[in-house]
Amino acid sequence: MPEAIVENKKEAPLLSVAQDDWFRGIKNYKIDFKPYSGLWLVFAFLGLWELLPRIGVVDQVYLPTFSETFKTLIELLLSGKLLVDIGASCFRALAGFTLALLVAVPLGFLMGRYGDFERYTDLFIQILRNTSTFALFPIFLLLFGLGETSKIAIIFYAASWHILINTINGVKNVDPIYIKAAKSMGATDRDLFRKIILPATIPAIVSGARLGAKIAFMVVIAAEMIGAKSGLGFFIQSSQYNFLIPQMYAGVLALSILGVTINYVLVWFEKKTTSWKGELDQSIFG
Amino acid sequence: MEKVRIENIKKIFRLKKNQQVSNNGVLSNELLVLNGVDLKVKTGEFLVIVGPSGSGKSVLLDVIAGLAKPTSGEVYHDDKKVDGPNLKTSYVFQQYALFPWRTALSNIEFGLETRGVPEGERRRTGRELLSLFGLSGFEDRFPYQLSGGMQQRVAIARSLATNPDLLLMDEPFAALDAQTRETLQDQLLKIWDQKRTTVVFVTHGIEEAVFLADRVVVMTARPGKIKQIIEIDLARPRSEDIRSSVQFAANKEKVWSVLKEEVNKAQRESEYVAGFSR
Fold it and tell me: Hey, is the C-beta of B163 within 8 angstroms of any chain A C-beta?
């Protein structure tokens, strides 16, 4: 075995100073630190929410204080009532989203890979895609009834688009040099798909999935407000109808917390799976 | 003893529907890139191909690699006709082409994976090669965490992992700064001296060509043919200070005098200025 001829000392000094904390930072990946400084504004807002109804600037009947809302929320959670509704919403969103993944990802690969397929389907898809989802909801209700199916169907429909478009773009944007390099190393077609195209497309798929998940959550709440008998959207809506105002705000608060959590989980997941892309400011080599 | 025999290779690219190109004033839908290339590559030699932009150097390399089919003519590797990628041939690209989702070690292992080499052996070979290139400790780095010079070294290591008997290199150092380029040229020669793989190396740089080559092939402007083959009479092993020797300059002059005419031809035809240095 020939001995190492190359002195890597030349390269080491260039790296050593920045290397330790930079590489360590990547290994112990932490969630973005930005929320911490942002908390000031949030607290200010909550402070206002607490203050204004108390001093009578806003009528307490129409806007309960933050503390009252929070108290109501805890009570509802502890009694289990709200949990049932939250569970229903989450189940529907998850079901629709999973279905969207199962259909849109393979379809996206097909359309991205076979240009002919895309040529024939593109116009139709553009038409569907640009028709407002909620305008189609009455159709879903008619076809699938008032039960779970119609809600899951519309969530599936809405979430699919982002996943599909992103997957197609991901497949198309796989740099041909990778294909060429893989082929020159003896990769079969199966190798090409499993080892090159698939990993190269994952960032796009995950990005599309993140948008799809957000849409799924948004659509489920709206759909429940329009036609449902359970779920967080339904809860908020019915609280309003029955003039249970603190309950309504509690529902909105729960919705907000849920949405924010989902968002940060998705962002974390996306960063985890695409860490190999690196970020512009992480490159110290210019 | 010849490693590769290239016989009368012609390559025509058919352009897309609305594109046309001018061949000596005649508009046509076809782009003739290679116009009858004949070449014999000796076993164990370091052959460098230079030529103006558009002369089809990279296309020729693709044809030898089996990645592109010639319109007519044949290529023989060890007397066997080339009609697809060959397991004994490796290719190094200008853009490194490292897979960004794989670590350095995992990149090097790719060629071994496709050949069904078991994991333990793959890992060992990979680590050995990394240490050969002075990159021990960088096994788990991703390409974005490596400098250009390091990435290219990983790419070359990857090409050597499969123990090729023919190494094709398409302007591998063109994307690097001048200092890194010279360092890598030197390192490449040192490693090549030990393995004596047959190398076909394409470049724009005359100095690079003279420093590395046993023979330099000068190609004509498009459509590409071989204009002349120049023997480089510099002793091996070649150290860095050979660059400043009188013989070196003489060899450079020999190559440039043949190449000059073709570069002018190519520049007259195309609108952009080719990156010719030294």
Answer: no
Nearest-neighbour CA in chain A from B257: distance (Å)? 34
- Residues B221 and B269 sit within 8 Å (Cβ to Cβ): yes
- Residue A14 in domain: no
**Count of the separate structural domains present in chain A:** 1
| A165-188 tens-digit pLDDT | 999 999 999 999 999 999 999 899
CA distances from B241 to A10, A92, B118, B184, B244 (A): 19, 72, 43, 15, 6
Low-confidence ranges of chain B (pLDDT < 70): 18-25, 269-278
Find the helix packing angle between A232-241 and A245-273, rounded to 10°.
Answer: 160
Coil, helix or strand at residue A104: helix
Banded model confidence at residue A122, pLDDT cuts 50, 70, 90: confident
Q: Is B179 in CB contact (< 8 Å) with chain A?
A: no
Q: What is the pLDDT of residue A148?
A: 87
CATH 3.60.110.10 assigned to domain B1-7+33-88+165-278? The reply is no
> ipTM of the assembly?
0.88
